Amino acid sequence: MELALSLGDASRSLTNFTDKPVKIKDNMGFCMGLGALIKEKSQEKTQQQEITREDVRRASSDPPVQLDLLPFSPVQRYPPPPPSHLRFSWLSENFCRLLDFLWVIFDLFEAVNLCEPAGSNRVPEEAGVSSPNSGVSSFQMELSLQRNKRDFEMTMNEVDGERASSRASDDDENGLTRKKLRLSKEQSAFLEESFKEHNTLNPKQKLALAKQLDLRPRQVEVWFQNRRARTKLKQTEVDCEYLKRCCETLTEENRRLQKELQELRALKTCQPFYMQLPATTLTMCPSCERVAPTTTTTTAANATTTVNGGGSGPNLSLSDSSKQPKLNNNPFFQVQGHANQVAS
DNA sequence: ACCTTGTAGCACGTTACGTCA
DNA sequence: GTTGACGTAACGTGCTACAAG
């Protein structure tokens, strides 16, 4: 079995090994080596536990990550830790993805073409099997991490204390898939309290919260993002329910007014002509839900349901308040205010 | 002043894990 | 023990604002 490896045209070659093509903005013809990884994890994980892509991705995306920018050569698989002045904190996501994958390629290349790795009892064909979601087999990642462990340990002393402490919660993961930690009640309560004070965080607040709760800043950031999303979703549900009730109320009111209109029309045909008085009544348009003045005639008996329509008729009282469209009390016109109330 | 590029933060949708009935 | 629903941590993507060159 022969494996061709061409890093000169990375954007083309890398797509052969992943489910999803790796997006690469620039073709990079140099060798890159990670200078920091998970010290505690590497030490604690057993041979049976697989170290996943997630581990490598996180390790490569958490600043600072060290790179060796050396002329590409397959021999220089494990370059020595770079000097501190070659650290980069500007790694883009795609670049980190490329880093992840390059290690896999290196290990795969060696496993297939060079030699059987020490301590590995797997056949090389296994290395070509990709997991359905990650596009990188866990075997490859295990190989990669185990072999680079010694290199990582050389540079772990350079990892700053904050990062080391923030990663303390990572130790208990099994590493099979992406990790999901359940926050403790105390942590959730504290985050809730902070969210009540301000639903967004500036970097300083984020760092302070993370340090106080022994979480990674990214976790705090994600928590606030999800919390805002939950708030918005709940708000939407409340608004939806409220609008539903408004719709029901208006429908019922419209039905009542329509019935009243029918009664008035019936009375109009029955009452003597001299009893009819011109007036303007308020009717609710069923389609646009607006109150529109309609000049009609009614009897004195029903005059309490009309209002003065521009002086063309007598001023009539509004004694029967239950029959008036209550615009100010209509819930339809209160939705906005209600929404703001809930949001607060 | 204008443009380009990189970065950070966010909303939104989705995935996947943990919990519980 | 299994299963499905649900809550939610974590992630991917696109957009926008901003700063620096």
Structure commentary:
The chain is mainly alpha-helical. The protein has two domains: 10-177, no CATH class; 237-343, no CATH class. 44% of the residues lie in helices and 7% in strands. The protein contains ten helices and six strands. It has helices spanning 10-13, 39-44, 53-61, 93-114, 138-155, 161-166, 185-197, 203-213, 217-270, 335-343, and strands at residues 30-31, 65-66, 70-71, 87-88, 277-284, 291-298. The strands form three sheets. A two-stranded antiparallel ribbon has the order 1-3. A hairpin with a 6-residue loop joins strand 5 (277-284) and strand 6. The longest helix is centred in the last third of the chain and has 54 residues, at 217-270. It is elongated and about 110 Å long. The relative contact order is 0.09. It binds a DNA duplex (21 and 21 nucleotides) through helix 9.
Topology overview:
Blueprint: H1 10-13, E1 30-31, H2 39-44, H3 53-61, E2 65-66, E3 70-71, E4 87-88, H4 93-114, H5 138-155, H6 161-166, H7 185-197, H8 203-213, H9 217-270, E5 277-284, E6 291-298, H10 335-343
Antiparallel strand pairs: 1-3, 2-4, 5-6
The protein binds a DNA duplex (21 and 21 nucleotides) through residues 90, 92-93, 133, 177-183, 200, 203, 218-219, 221-223, 225-226, 228-230, 232.
Short description:
It is built from 10 helices and 6 strands. It has 344 residues and is mainly alpha-helical. The chain is elongated and about 110 Å long.
Structure keywords:
DNA-binding; 344 residues; transcription regulation; 10 helices; mainly alpha; two-stranded antiparallel ribbon; sequence-specific DNA binding; 7% strand; disordered C terminus; 2 domains
